[in-house]
Amino acid sequence: MVNVEKLREIVGKDWVVTTPEQMVDYMQDAVMGAVIPKPAKNVILVKPANAQEISEILKLANEEKFPVIVRGGGSGMAGGAVPNIDCVLLSMERLDKIEEVDKANLMITAQAGVSYGELTKAAEDAGMFFPPHPGDEGAYVGGVVACNAGGARAIKYGVQEFCQGC
Ligand SMILES: Cc1cc2nc3c(=O)[nH]c(=O)nc-3n(C[C@H](O)[C@H](O)[C@H](O)COP(=O)(O)OP(=O)(O)OC[C@H]3O[C@@H](n4cnc5c(N)ncnc54)[C@H](O)[C@@H]3O)c2cc1C
Fold first, then answer.
1. Which of 5, 45, 49, 129 has the most CB within a 10 Å radius?
2. Exposed, middle or buried by CB within 10 Å (0-12, 13-18, 19+), for 129?
3. Is residue 100 classed as helix, strand or coil in its secondary structure?
4. Measuring CA to CA, which residue among 65, 55, 59 is closest to residue 87?
5. What is the model's pTM?
6. CB-side exposure of 60: number of CA atoms within 13 Å?
7. Are 55 and 34 in contact (CB under 8 A)?
8. Furthest-apart CA atoms within the chain: distance in Å
9. Cα 5 to ligand 1 centre (Å)
10. Is 86 left (phi over 0), alpha (psi -120 to 50) or beta?
11. Please, are residues 76 and 136 in contact by the beta-carbon 8 Å criterion?
């Protein structure tokens, strides 16, 4: 059983959702047809604001042995963001800041919840080009990295542009 009070202490009471009616949109992604996963009944939706809070949530998850599923933009087509087991669903939606646009080094530092649309706009505003195009502007940076999504442009540019340090 997840200790909801501890989660509230970490992220603030407004960012822990326990009412199923308030998380309907989080119970699906873009997967279609007969393979749509069935959402679990006991899901706690948590919306951290930063890496420190995520770290504390994962520490608690390790101590209390509850599963955590990460939720990005929900545009994945494999059901990965759908909480099909009782768990804490960790939404990245508040990590939505572009921290730095470094044109000299052709780099952008963005939090996991920045959407693909916002990221490409920031690149274009700085006169840069961001090649991967996973097909949905609402996908988040973290989700695109997690899925190594590249879209049709991957044929020309590949999909390794996200890899830090390589
Ligand atoms: C119309 C359409 C076209 C598409 N075309 C392509 C295509 O051509 N090529 C392609 O590769 N993909 C394509 N996709 C799918 C693409 O993989 C997703 O759009 C995107 O990668 C998922 O990002 P998301 O933020 O929506 O992730 P979600 O759907 O929220 O999550 C996807 C998976 O990533 C995990 N995840 C999400 N965020 C994080 C994080 N911060 N840390 C760790 N794990 C995380 C989730 O737990 C889940 O397992 C398409 C999707 C749509 C809707």
1. 45
2. exposed
3. strand
4. 65
5. 0.94
6. 22
7. no
8. 50
9. 31
10. beta
11. no
Determine how many CB atoms are found less than 10 A away from the CB of residue 134. 23
How does pLDDT run across 109-136, given as a tens digit for each residue? 999 999 999 999 999 999 999 988 888 9
Q: Whose CA is nearest to atom 2 of ligand 1?
A: 135
3-state helix, strand, coil in the chain (%, to 5): 35, 15, 45
Q: Could you tell me the distance, in angstroms and rounded to a whole number, from the CA of residue 77 to the centre of ligand 1?
A: 7
16-30, pLDDT tens digit by residue?
Answer: 999 999 999 999 999
Task: Enter the DSSP assignment of 102.
Answer: E
Which of ligand 1's atoms lies nearest the C-alpha of 71? Answer: 30
